[in-house]
């Protein structure tokens, strides 16, 4: 018998099994989890409006440097103290609800909604006139807060899932089901589509520009593949396939959208047609092929989940383009009402499709999964637009920090997650140690993001 070869990751197979064969949680629990983070963000705005913990002075502080090129010490101290308060008010509670307070999710979501309603009814806080006078700014701020909330949860989950303190029902499902982490890739695709060039009716890009914007995703995908192979890092093959990963999916969607470039008013029709046709194809028997463990010795079969599911993500992206154009880049006066109506419609569609067509499956990105992603994301947006009814600051320092470097924050989170996994036996770690590591990880991620924003550093490839 050959001796086992040295590995940077001796517990690779145990870690892969730890995130395999999972079935997810209930839709009700996903609704509760999707309530908590945006509610915390809106409540933070309210606390700032009441003058607690000091004003944000975001527009003054984030100028970063004085004319002589040096950082003003007082502004830096105010900025960092406010950032820490934002961390304690938004990020830390989110982490706790994803771990040690997971069993209290439903009750806490109800309490937060009741508290939000109280804040909305608190007429003593001030006037809404300053905010109401610029609906376009309000909409942009709400969309930014939505993208930031998605990024915060994603960054917390990608490391927390490797510890036993993280409920298994929140991790990605094997075949069918509604796990919290199943929403990750779909939310990224949808978030990008809502604010895309197509949604803003920007003229079509030339191929040179398309390649410049897509090549970073391809490079990151290849880089991740080389890294995971080189250090024997754990990879759940059933998620995308043997070689495929999240970055290749984003690149594929971008290339397809650029190849078939149509006006935003027709994107919804095309996207829905693609999704319906794709679902019919799945129901004809392709779903059994995608969910089977058998793989032939060719690239397509080895990466069947990632390659085929692009049709679902592309259809979702196109639908998101028209929704973004309709909601955020047209008449903003009815945006709040429209977001709430769409959230309800998408949740009802998810329940109906899940029961009568096919259960939610991230692995295939079927029609029900697309409805599930739309429902959850629009629910988050619907709660965030409630901040328009609460006077005071429209954003927080930590939101601005993450919003300036969404991709940079995600890449840093992935690097830190990889380093921690290579250094710590996450499966055997006690709950107290795991929580300490996660809090430290989240705090460092927030501080570095704040430092980059304060210093004017922005990671952008195009």
UniProtKB/TrEMBL annotation:
Q: Which UniProt keywords apply?
A: Membrane, Transmembrane, Transmembrane helix
Look up and give the membrane topology term: Multi-pass membrane protein
Has UniProt tagged this entry with the keyword Transport? Answer: no
Q: Cite a single GO MF annotation.
A: glucosaminyl-phosphatidylinositol O-acyltransferase activity
List cellular component terms (GO): endoplasmic reticulum; membrane
Q: What is any Pfam family matched here? A: GWT1
User: Would I find Ribonucleoprotein among this entry's keywords?
Assistant: no
Transmembrane regions listed in the UniProt entry = 20-43, 78-98, 104-121, 148-166, 178-195, 207-227, 242-260, 267-286, 306-327, 369-390, 402-420, 432-454
Which GO terms are recorded in the biological process aspect for this UniProt protein?
Answer: GPI anchor biosynthetic process; protein localization to plasma membrane
Protein location? Membrane
- What's the name of the protein? GPI-anchored wall transfer protein
Q: Which organism is it from?
A: Papaver somniferum
């Amino acid at each position: 018998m050959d001796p086992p070869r040295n590995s940077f990751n001796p517990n690779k197979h145990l870690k892969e099994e730890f995130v395999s064969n999972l079935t997810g949680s209930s839709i009700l629990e996903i609704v509760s989890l999707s309530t908590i983070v945006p509610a915390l963000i809106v409540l933070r705005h309210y606390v700032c409006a009441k003058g607690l913990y000091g004003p944000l002075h975001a527009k003054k502080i984030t100028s970063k440097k004085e004319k002589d090129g040096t950082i003003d010490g007082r502004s830096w101290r105010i900025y960092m103290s406010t950032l820490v308060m934002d961390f304690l008010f938004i990020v830390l509670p989110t982490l706790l609800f994803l771990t040690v307070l997971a069993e209290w999710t439903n009750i806490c979501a109800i309490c937060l909604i009741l508290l939000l309603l109280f804040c909305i009814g608190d007429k003593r806080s001030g006037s809404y006139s300053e905010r109401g006078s610029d609906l376009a700014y309000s909409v942009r701020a709400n969309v930014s807060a939505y993208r930031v909330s998605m990024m915060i949860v994603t960054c917390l989950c990608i490391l927390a899932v490797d510890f036993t303190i993280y409920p298994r029902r929140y991790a990605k499902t094997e075949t069918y089901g509604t796990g919290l982490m199943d929403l990750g890739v779909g939310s990224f695709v949808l978030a990008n589509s809502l604010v895309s060039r197509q949604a803003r009716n920007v003229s079509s890009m030339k191929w040179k520009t398309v390649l410049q914007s897509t090549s970073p995703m391809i490079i990151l995908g290849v880089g991740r593949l080389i890294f995971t192979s080189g250090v024997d890092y754990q990879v759940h093959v059933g998620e995308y396939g043997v070689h495929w990963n999240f970055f290749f999916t984003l690149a594929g969607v971008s290339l397809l959208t650029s190849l078939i470039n149509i006006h935003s008013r027709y994107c919804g029709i095309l996207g829905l047609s693609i999704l319906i046709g794709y679902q019919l194809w799945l129901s004809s028997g392709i779903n059994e092929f995608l969910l089977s463990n058998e793989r032939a010795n060719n690239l397509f079969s080895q990466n069947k989940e990632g390659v085929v599911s692009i049709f679902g993500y592309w259809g979702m992206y196109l639908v998101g383009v028209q929704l973004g154009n309709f909601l955020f880049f047209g008449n903003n006066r009815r945006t709040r009402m429209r977001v709430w109506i769409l959230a309800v419609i998408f949740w009802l569609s998810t329940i109906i499709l899940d029961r009568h067509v096919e259960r939610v499956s991230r692995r295939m990105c079927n029609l029900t999964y697309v409805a599930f992603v739309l429902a959850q994301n629009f629910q988050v947006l619907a709660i965030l637009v409630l901040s328009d009814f609460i006077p005071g600051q429209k954003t927080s320092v930590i939101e601005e920090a993450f919003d300036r470097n969404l991709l940079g924050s995600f890449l840093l989170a992935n690097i830190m997650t990889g380093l921690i996994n290579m250094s710590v036996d996450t499966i055997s770690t006690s709950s107290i140690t795991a929580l300490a590591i996660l809090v430290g990880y989240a705090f460092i991620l927030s501080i570095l993001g704040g430092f980059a924003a304060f210093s004017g550093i922005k990671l952008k490839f195009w």
